[in-house]
Amino acid sequence: MAEIPVNSIQFSEELIRIIRSATHILVLTGAGISAESGIPTFREAQTGLWAKYNPEDLATPESFQRNPRLVWEWYTWRRDLIQKAIPNPGHLALAVMEKLVPNFHLITQNVDNLHRIAGSQNIIEFHGNIFQTKCSYEDIIIESWPETRDIPPRCPRCNHFLRPNVVWFGESIPQQAITSAINCIQNCEVFFSIGTSSLVEPSASLPLTARLQGSVIIEINLEHTPMTYLADFVLKGPSGKILPGLIANIWPQFYPQDTNFSSSKS
Ligand code: OAD
């Protein structure tokens, strides 16, 4: 990818003014914001021995019921892949924005924990967190369990299989996450949709909900999506370049002009 100096990206004065004056900003992110950290997006082809599997066929309660070992080993593979990744300038820019905007909340569909590692705090994890494990029967987080040869390991309390604390297809988003999202959307003046194909509900409906209550909608993506028609501003390009450029233009006092945003892995 050609290096785009972030200060060379031109943003409209109106966009800069709107974001700079906003006191309530809500951001929705998808797999695209982690792509520049080297994590394949959800709908990109899988690699290696998992190439023959479709994520939609593995991330389901039925798959886990049918073949718990296969599903557990797929998540172990994904966790190992993600563990090697570091936040990219897009994650870091959102962590900076959170510090500069009085009421800032971040809803992520990603389970990779990179927003937290980047320093974001007001995070609503719609689809859980791949580094957390829960009991498949009691649905509670299990921090540790005795090392055994069982794959998946078993809950030390009830002996049912453990599973990753992520939302599978056909499962509901945690009620707490939904309630938080509804509260945040009610007051948001600016809604960002970043790096998501806007195909999966209920996330895909959030931009429309925000639009209907008067928020300015900004989409950052490499391509158009089903919610592009809703956007007041469509910033087409990699979020790892666009977001630092936005921050540098909106709050230049916080970013010396020669700041180097490229993450060490880029
Ligand atoms: P997808 O893989 O569906 O979409 C990724 C989006 O990111 C696409 O629209 C890409 O164009 C865009 N993209 C890729 N690289 C980008 C970059 N560098 N900068 C900006 N945009 C980029 O992933 P999601 O939309 O996150 O849910 O998928 C949503 C949910 O679908 C996932 O959380 C998963 C799946 O069902 C569960 O597993 C429950």
Structure, explained:
By secondary structure, this protein is an alpha/beta fold. Mean pLDDT is 91; it is low at 262-266. The protein has helices spanning 13-21, 32-35, 55-58, 61-66, 68-83, 89-100, 114-118, 175-187, 206-212, 239-250, and strands at 24-29, 103-108, 123-125, 128-135, 162-166, 190-194, 216-221, 233-236. The chain has two domains: 4-38 and 87-127 and 173-261, 3-Layer(aba) Sandwich (Rossmann fold); 40-84 and 130-166, SIR2/SIRT2 'Small Domain' (2-Layer Sandwich). The chain has ten helices and eight strands. α6 (89-100) runs parallel beside α10.
Strands, helices and their partners?
Blueprint: H1 13-21, E1 24-29, H2 32-35, H3 55-58, H4 61-66, H5 68-83, H6 89-100, E2 103-108, H7 114-118, E3 123-125, E4 128-135, E5 162-166, H8 175-187, E6 190-194, H9 206-212, E7 216-221, E8 233-236, H10 239-250
Parallel strand pairs: 1-2, 1-6, 2-3, 6-7, 7-8
Antiparallel strand pairs: 4-5
Helix pairs in contact: 6-10
The protein binds 2'-O-acetyl adenosine-5-diphosphoribose (OAD).
Mean pLDDT: 91
Q: What percent strand?
A: 15-25%
Which regions contain 5 or more consecutive residues with pLDDT less than 50? 262-266
CATH homologous superfamily (4th level) name of the largest domain? TPP-binding domain
The proportion of residues forming helix, as a percent range, comes to 25-40%
